[in-house]
Amino acid sequence: MIDSASLPPGRQPFLDDSVVCLAAPSFALSPRDGQLRGSGVDGFYDQDRRLLHTLRLLVDDQEPEHVAHRPEGSREAFFQAMCRSSEDPTAAPWLLVARDRTVTRPDVAESGDVVRLQNVGPDAARFTVSVLAATDLADVATIKAGFPAADIPCEQAEGIVPAVRWHCPHDNSEVVLRAEPVPPHDGGPEPKITLDDHRPGRAEFRWELLLKPGEEWSVRLLVQGKTTTVAGYPVPPRRPAPWGRVEVTGHEHMAALLTRGLADLEALRLAEPSGAADEAESQFVAAGCPWFLGLFGRDSIWAARMMLPFGTGLARGTLRALAGRQGTRRDAFTDEAPGRILHELRPTETRHGDGLVLPARYYASVDATPLFVVLLHEAWKWGLAEDEVRHLMPHARAAMGWVADTLGPDGLISYGRGRADGLLHQGWKDSPDAVRDAEGRRVDPPIALCEVQGYAYRAAVGFAELLTAVEDEKEQAELWAERATRLRTAFQRSFWVEEPDGRRYPAIAVDGGGRPVTGRTSNMGHLLNSGLLQGEEEHRSVAEALMSDGLRTPWGIRTRSADLAGFNPFSYHGGSVWAHDSAIAVHGLAATGFVDEAATLLGGMLDAARHFDYRLPELYAVYPNSRFGRPAPYPPSCRPQAWAAASAALLCSAMLRVDADVPDRRLTLRPIAPSRMGLHSPYAVRGLRLGERSVDVSVDLHGGTEVRGIDDEEWRIDAGGSCTT
Fold first, then answer.
1. Helix (H) or strand (E) holding 300
2. Which of 274, 349, 544, 649 lies at 20 to 30 Å from 505 by C-alpha?
């Protein structure tokens, strides 16, 4: 058998050139030719385990020559190849090879490939077809860390259909690969199955074929895995996505980005296990494929927040999934604490390299807990049913209890040093070197991050409103309003950095000594729409800092200014551009009146999306040198990734400058005029949701707005030049 090369140990595999097929919790990754050679991250996966790392097609013991590939939605991909004869002086092939790959959720059907061969030569052809297969059943964390894993022994499986089976005795997981003939070729040649005596995990299916000119032959290769099931672990969803159809017309790039983003979010969906078929399903989106295909508090919450104008169903499911795992006790290993919201959930404890060991349930996030309350408040504003809000209020109360306990003597919410083999940082920038000052020096915990103060402030204000409107607890509401005011005062005192020319910006963090960590970073963009900033001057200072040459690129906002020591465009959090981070800045600028700045960044992000086939990756790089006329892939980046995909919805909201208060029957729209975005025609967004209502918005060339689906007798519609029908 032909062996395959692998990466040097200890290196994270690259993904930027991979073809991804996804139906969470299952997915497949391969190079552009569709072959799985047992290297890097190649494979079919389910529930964070690799089911196959090798599925290699050979014709006469040679790989066909790759011609083209085409993704077909999020779940499918089509690969084309050919075989040429050394005796033919032309470039014409004698055999066409097509490979259709489909990934399905395991409760629906098996994933796999359909291989189709057609003799396009002038003569009958006798040849062999082989499929080589193997697996290591490695977990995703092991693969991400670049650790080697031993192959699992293989045996021939009994049954009518030719099949092989791999079984892992230590956890009773197994994989079966079947080779089924595709009609109308029933009764065709059976494959010979050979197991490699020297490599017990390697299997070969081999067919001897004779095809006449024009004749075709096909086989279906089906992968079925059974991995250890953790009680209460999320499952594939039974029901459709909890949002309706949303359509953009008149803006081609926004329409393409939104279509792709919503398709990726649909493929990333998971659900809470439910016993009753008629029970309302709690769906959420997994953080990203392949490294984070599970429930992640911060990521799942942000994706649900971004999707609120398209319906509250995703927010409801996300809140319920997290509420069911909210901390109730103190645990030093998991960082659980009463009221704390989960950071990440995996099937088992994972080892990520560099000594990092994370439990299956891990709570080390400083921002997920206030963001949980922010999401509940905003979902209520967008029409989440009051009985759902009441159901979740005890969890919001517990979360705000954690926030109150975490506020330090300085009035800020911060985090300290956790255990040595856990995460060092607990914000969204959680890599070991994520927090550095202007001179490039690392700043380690205790840390108070600027954006977390904004989240906590928004949570406190929103919780106070919920206490008043839903629970009629005015005294408690006043207490939280006072805490919000004190937090704002503490922020004003501690975070602002003044430069020699008099310009100011908020520091990324305040260190354990109460000193602001200098150097412009993208974190400040999260403050614009938080309510924490005071007055036009502070908002303008943030807007100008974000639009400065060091942070702004033609395709988004850098995480760290290029003017600072230690800047690296390919650093995970020290100079790269993150899609969600830039989209949050665009939305904040639009919401606070910096429309031209928002329109400029919005156009840049849409152009970045164009370079990535409208699937915005988790992050990407932008070279400081203008010679490079496009953003560069960050090779290990997740694709698709939840808050990158949901950024399409947030950018659409920013374009409309839309805000809603369903309990008060109020809708606010201040759309960006087409001319300010370089458009020469009106645009429209159809399918916005206000509770149970579907609303369509049309915007003329000058920004005038027409709203359909609600009337101004029942609703207060605040839109410049608007009319309703």
1. helix 297-306
2. 649
Q: Which two tokens stand for residue 211?
A: 């095809």
Q: Three-class SS string for 436-458?
A: ECCCCCECCCCEEEHHHHHHHHH
Residues 6+ apart with CB under 8 A from 620: 555, 556, 576, 577, 579, 608, 612, 631, 632, 633, 634, 637
Peptide bond into 25 cis (omega under 30): yes
Cβ burial 668-688 (10 Å sphere, 16+ → b, else e): ebbbbbbebbebeebbbbbbb
Nearest to 164 by CA among 113, 189, 200, 198: 200
Contact 507, 516 (CB under 8 A): yes
Q: Is the peptide bond before 359 cis (omega within 30 degrees of 0)?
A: no
233 CA to centre of own chain: 19
Task: Read off the tokens for 497.
Answer: 């950095």
Question: 43 vs 10, 49, 50, CA distance in Å?
Answer: 18, 10, 6
Rounded distance, CA 81 to CA 69, Å? 9
Spans of the chain below 70 pLDDT: 1-10, 184-187, 228-229, 275-278, 626, 720-725
Q: Which residues does residue 415 pair with via DSSP β-bridges, in sequence order? A: 447
CA 179 to chain centroid: 33
User: CA 527, CA 440: separation in Å to the nearest integer?
Assistant: 23
Partners of residue 56 on adjacent β-strands = 132
Residues 6+ apart with CB under 8 A from 279: none
What span, in angstroms and rounded, lies between the C-alpha atoms of 601 and 323? 35
What pLDDT is attached to residue 3? Answer: 38
Residue 184: in which H helix or E strand, if any?
A: none
- Residue 707: name the closest of 684, 691, 674 by CA: 684
Decide if 616 contacts 259 (C-beta within 8 A): no
- CA dist list (Å): 291 to 14, 230, 337, 638: 12, 19, 26, 7
Is residue 17 classed exposed, middle or buried when 0-12, 13-18 and 19+ CB atoms within 10 A define those classes?
Answer: exposed
Comparing CA positions, the residue from 369, 342, 372, 370 lying closest to residue 358 is 342
Q: What are phi and psi of 372, to 5 degrees?
A: -60, -45
Strands 247-249 and 357-358, bridge-based pairing: unpaired
Q: Which residues contact 63 (CB under 8 A, 6 or more apart)?
A: 33, 35, 56, 57
pLDDT at 230: 75
Instruction: Collect contacts of 530-533 with beta carbons under 8 A, ≥24 apart.
Output: 530/451, 530/454, 530/455, 530/457, 530/458, 531/454, 531/457, 531/458, 531/461, 532/453, 532/454, 532/457, 532/458, 532/487, 532/488, 532/491
Give per-residue burial for 103-127: e unless 16+ CB within 10 Å, then b: bbbbeeebbbbbbebbbbbeeebeb
| 553 vs 714: CA distance, rounded Å | 44
Quick one: pLDDT at residue 43?
A: 96
What is the pairing mode between strands 49-52 and 54-59?
A: unpaired
Q: Would you state the pLDDT for residue 311?
A: 97
Question: Which one-letter amino acid corresponds to residue 534?
Answer: Q
557 - beta bridge partners?
A: 552
DSSP string, 521-584: BGGGGGGTTTS-S-HHHHHHHHHHHHTSTTTEETTEEBSB-TTSTT--TTSTTTT-EEHHHHHH
The residues, any chain, with a CB within 8 Å of residue 435's CB and separated by 6 or more, are 425, 429, 442, 443, 444, 447, 449, 508, 509, 517
Residue 631 neighbours by CB under 8 Å, 6+ apart:
553, 555, 556, 577, 608, 611, 612, 620, 621, 622
Q: List beta partners, residue 717.
A: 667
**725 in Cβ contact with 705 (< 8 Å):** no
Q: What is the DSSP secondary structure assignment for residue 673, as one 8-state letter?
A: P
* E strand spans, 559-692: 577-578, 619-621, 632-633, 658-661, 666-669, 683-690
Q: How many residues does the chain have?
A: 725
- What is d(CA 258, CA 247) in angstroms, rounded to the nearest whole number? 8
